[in-house]
Structure formats: structure tokens, C-alpha cells
Design brief:
With 191 residues, this protein is of the alpha/beta class. 58% of the residues lie in helices and 14% in strands. Helix 4 packs parallel to helix 5 and helix 6 crosses helix 7. The radius of gyration is 16 Å and the shape is globular.
Length: 191
């Protein structure tokens, strides 16, 4: 099972990815967590991406794809991607790499959360410079401009569904898991 979570910053992608990974025995791959770890470890990549993260800008495609390639390709049991791709261009480029290897996304899940709730969650989280109000506003603007078009892209290629991500995490998880199980029945056994 290869899943993708799409949602604005603060929509609960990380929480749902962890729950889905545990429930279905798949790997949770978070581009944001990997990038933040590189920054904490002060790796060459971390030093390069820190300024992008501090401003709330998207990290360049090539850097993110290079970082994610190995985790995606080695996730034999499947994966749930959280935070990548963030643009249609990233989705197309990653598809070209993983499709021939049979590691492409099978279903996309859109976590829909109202802007006011996103602001409340992100301000409460207080991770540092990336959760300051001006940076949050910029991140939400980047999401609208760059990531929302992914919904149409995936709707034309894979299974995609939208869930109300403003509900309690356990309720959202049950909704997602139920829909995934229905999709698995519809899709039938895989080779």
C-alpha cells in the first residue's frame, strides 16, 4: 500500500501518517521531518535548506527528491508520504522515477481543514521560526498556490478522496482507514 497525504501545514498529515503506518504496517516518510533532522544535524543539506524553512518557502525539488528517493524505494511493505510532493511538477518528476520501479502512489488522501483552524493549530504548535504568524501566513499562501493544484492532478491519475481534517484525530483516522479498506476491495487483489 502506497499512500500520499495532501493537506495544508497544520492539517494533521504527520499525525495521520503515523496512525496509518501503524495500522497498515507501512513506513511513514515525512519530508518535513527529514528536512528538520538535516537542519538539526547541521548536514550540508540542512545548512542549504534552513533559509527556505525559516522563510516558509518550498525547498527546491531536486534537494527534496534526492533526500526521499532511498526511503521510498526501500519501503518494501509500502509507505505513507507526508509533505511530498508539494507541487504538480514534483509529482510528475517523482512519478517518472518511481513508476518504472512499481513504487508509485496508489491513493491520495486530502485532509481538508479550514484556514482559521490551521492558524490556531500552527500558532499553538510553536516549533520556532517556521510557526511565527507571518511565516504561517506565507506557508498557507504557498500551499494554496502550489499544492492545491495537486488535487486535480491526482484526481486524474490515482484514487483520491477528501476527509474533514478538522475533526478529532481518531475520528479522521477511522474515516481514512474505512475508505482505504473500501478502495482495497474495489481494486481487488494485486499481483
Amino acid at each position: 500500500m502506497r499512500l500520499l497525504l495532501i493537506g495544508a501545514p497544520g492539517a494533521g498529515k504527520g499525525t495521520q501518517a503515523e496512525l496509518l503506518a501503524a495500522r497498515f504496517g507501512i513506513v511513514h516518510i515525512s519530508s518535513g521531518d527529514l528536512l528538520r533532522q538535516h537542519v538539526r544535524d547541521q548536514t550540508a543539506l540542512g545548512q542549504t535548506v534552513k533559509s527556505y524553512l525559516d522563510r516558509g518557502d518550498l525547498v527546491p525539488d531536486g534537494l527534496v527528491m534526492a533526500m526521499l528517493r532511498e526511503p521510498v524505494l526501500t519501503a518494501a511493505s509500502g509507505y505513507v508520504l507526508d509533505g511530498f510532493p508539494r507541487t504538480v511538477e514534483q509529482a510528475k518528476a517523482s512519478y517518472a522515477v518511481v513508476r518504472p520501479l512499481g513504487a508509485e502512489v496508489q491513493a491520495a488522501i486530502h485532509l481538508d481543514v479550514p484556514r482559521e483552524e490551521l492558524m490556531r493549530r500552527l500558532l499553538a504548535r510553536g516549533r520556532g521560526s517556521e510557526d511565527l504568524e507571518a511565516v504561517i501566513e506565507h506557508r498557507l499562501k504557498m500551499y494554496q498556490e502550489n499544492t492545491v493544484p495537486l488535487l486535480d492532478y491526482y484526481a486524474s491519475r490515482e484514487w483520491i478522496f477528501t476527509v474533514d481534517g478538522a475533526r478529532p484525530a481518531a475520528t479522521v483516522h477511522q474515516d481514512i482507514a474505512g475508505r482505504i479498506q473500501k478502495l482495497a476491495v474495489i481494486a481487488g487483489p494485486t499481483g
